[in-house]
Amino acid sequence: MSFPDMVYYEPAALEYELGKKLKEKYSDVPWIEIENHNNIPELRSESNEAFPKMKRHLVVAVRKTHKYAENHKVSDYLVPYTSSGCPASCLYCYLVCTYNKCAYLRLFVNREQMMDKMLETQRKSDRPLCFEIGSNSDLVLENAITDNLRWTIERFSESKSGYLTFPTKFHMVKDLLNLNHRGKVIFRMSVNPQEIIRKIEIGTSPLEKRIEALNSMCEAGYPAGLLIAPVIMTENWKTLYSELIETLAEKLSYRVKNSAFIEIIFMTYSYVQNAINTEAYPQAAPLFSKELMTGRGRGKYCYRDELRREGEEFLRAELAKKLPNMHILYVV
Ligand code: SF4
Asked: Ligand 1: which atom is nearest the Cα of residue 169?
């Protein structure tokens, strides 16, 4: 797929260095001026069917909202950072709940402002804080376009204390390996069985490459984590996840197996995602199941309690057998 096929931009974005670079980099595709990246009427009025086509568009804008949300898993705050949305198409992507059809990649060019706010927040705190910068997009994928992650890691590592963290489903970490991160950046790789990656995490890196990337980042001294997420309870889920854990036990390095932590997140799905997927990916395996799922409010569904409990017990037992030294931070 050629990406991007066109760029929508706020004129103010072209006053920033990154805006100028992108204008040059993508000079061979149409650039369409917009007033506000949150409201592009011609895209908002597109049909659900147009979703995959819309994922090829890129939006270049200035981030105006910088409000942090508190978080209590790996980090203290979820930080709106240099991008939102993503050109990949995981069928469960929670960003669709926020952005609906407009979950295409938006790049925000004012990274200095976002970095200054994080550094300032850390300076005012009497304890080290952890900032989650990857909850709105995939920063490793974004970095392949903008080089922002490299800049971010080098810049944040100068802070006296505090941590950054981000999860990814991509393997392109070569440019990050030799950075002077000073142990302040927690790298988290998200994994799933290869069959689920192929059918459901459309456009993301294969399992094997993700494992290699995690091994190299850990070897480069980054504190690291493994996300088994989202756990999707397809018909043969026990076989798939047991094989996944077996593969991880075989291929993860000694260092990962003895230092990284694990997060486990069961899939939630929503009415909006179901409506878009049914029309945009009619051939895809359906993720919603009336028998297995139950409502969780606001059009969201999650696995029924008894099934989820069975899933958690199964995964904990498999992990205890095959990856006994990896600490499970939480299961949700
Ligand atoms: S890689 Fe992440 S952000 Fe991109 S579609 Fe998949 S879940 Fe969404």
From this structure: 1
**Measured from the CB, is residue 190 less than 6 Å from ligand 1?**
no
Of residues 155, 158, 153, the one with CA closest to residue 176: 153
> Is beta strand 300-303 parallel, antiparallel or unpaired with respect to 268-270?
antiparallel
Closest of 59, 15, 19, 57 to residue 36, by C-alpha = 59
Nearest residue to 89 via CA among 110, 105, 112? 105
- Tokens 């297995």 correspond to 292
| 159-194 residue pLDDT tens | 999 999 999 999 999 999 999 999 999 999 999 999
Domains and CATH numbers, the chain: 6-331 (3.80.30.30)
For residue 86 and ligand 1, the question of a CB distance below 6 A is answered with: yes
Q: pLDDT per residue over 208-237, tens digit each?
A: 999 999 999 999 999 999 999 999 999 999
Helices (H), 35-183: 41-44, 51-54, 95-99, 111-124, 139-146, 148-156
Output the pLDDT for position 246.
Answer: 98
> For ligand 1, is residue 137 a contact (CB within 6 Å)?
yes
| pTM, entire model | 0.97
Tokens of 301: 């569904």
